[in-house]
Design brief:
The protein has an eight-stranded antiparallel sheet with strand order 1-2-3-4-8-7-6-5. A four-stranded antiparallel sheet has the order 9-10-11-12. By secondary structure, it is α+β, with helices and mostly antiparallel strands. The protein is built from four helices and twelve strands. The protein is globular, with a radius of gyration of 21 Å. A hairpin with a 2-residue loop joins strand 2 (about 60-65) and strand 3.
Length: about 270
């Protein structure tokens, strides 16, 4: 999958902690001048409301603020955030933000930028719609013809010096009262060397002779991108420049020399 957007975190409760000290180690800015700085979506930056605090809990590597209306979860090792409301939360069940998809995209973009996400790293914003239809769906029914728009999800895509970063994201759903219903973000710091390697790959492909030699080894219908391990990966963080090619329902990665590679979390998922 090109964009590995995480839509689930464990929400069971085991043991309590009095303060979220596990999150103190997450970098709020880039640690080196040569790195492409990341964005960490801390709870104090969020407009998601989990309601009256019930407890803080950490289990399976996830710190959670559990409230009466929902859970704000952060994977301690990577900084991946997912905030999910309960079904009876006041934000749930309301209509979508007024103004349609474009207004929703603008709201979500401004929301994360206000929290510290850098404008220069935004490639664009994509809209996904959630539709619902009441009643029985049969083979003869007209699909979603009578479906009702439940809401929008706006997904921010990342770019690094003109190169798409496929595995970073920030997204949110906002209701008609401008309340954040649910949200998620994973936008890690990237080594400057990886961005430089991606630009080197672009320059190589811009040269006719080098391009011809490269495509003797690699399919020619791909794109130069930056890939990195997902926010649920518990191993060492890995980022790499890649020439990505879609092939038979899969995305294949090739390095600067035309060698095929997989990221560690992709390797662990292979049968």
């Amino acid at each position: 999958m090109t964009h590995r957007i995480v839509l689930a975190l464990a929400v069971g409760l085991v043991a309590c902690s009095s303060a979220p000290s596990e999150l103190d180690s997450l970098a709020r800015v880039g640690s080196t001048s040569s790195a492409l700085i990341g964005y960490q979506h801390f709870e104090e930056r969020s407009r998601f409301s989990s309601g009256r605090l019930i407890l803080h809990v950490t289990e399976f590597g996830i710190h959670k603020r559990v409230g009466e209306w929902g859970v704000f979860g952060t994977r301690v090792k990577t900084g991946l955030v997912l905030a999910l409301p309960n079904g009876d939360a006041p934000t749930v069940g309301k209509g979508p933000l007024v103004g349609g998809a474009q207004a929703h995209d603008s709201f979500v973009r401004d929301y994360f930028v206000a929290g510290g996400l850098q404008v220069a790293q935004i490639a664009g914003v994509r809209t996904m719609s959630e539709m619902a239809k009441v009643g029985e769906v049969t083979a003869d029914s007209d699909g979603l013809a009578d479906a009702k728009l439940v809401g929008f999800y706006s997904v921010i895509d990342r770019i690094a010096d003109g190169v798409p970063v496929r595995d970073s994201f920030a997204w949110a759903q906002v209701n008609e009262d401008s309340e954040v219903v649910t949200e998620s973000a994973y936008w890690p710091e990237l080594p400057g060397s990886v961005v430089a390697r991606a630009k080197e790959m672009e320059a190589m492909l811009a040269d006719p002779e080098s391009r011809q030699l490269y495509f003797q080894k690699v399919p020619s219908h791909g794109k130069v991108v930056i890939r990195h391990t997902s926010g649920v990966w518990e191993g060492a963080f890995t980022a790499q420049a890649s020439y990505d090619v879609e092939w038979a329902g899969r995305v294949l990665h090739y390095d600067l020399k035309g060698n095929r590679f997989s990221l560690p979390d992709e390797e662990s998922a292979e049968p």
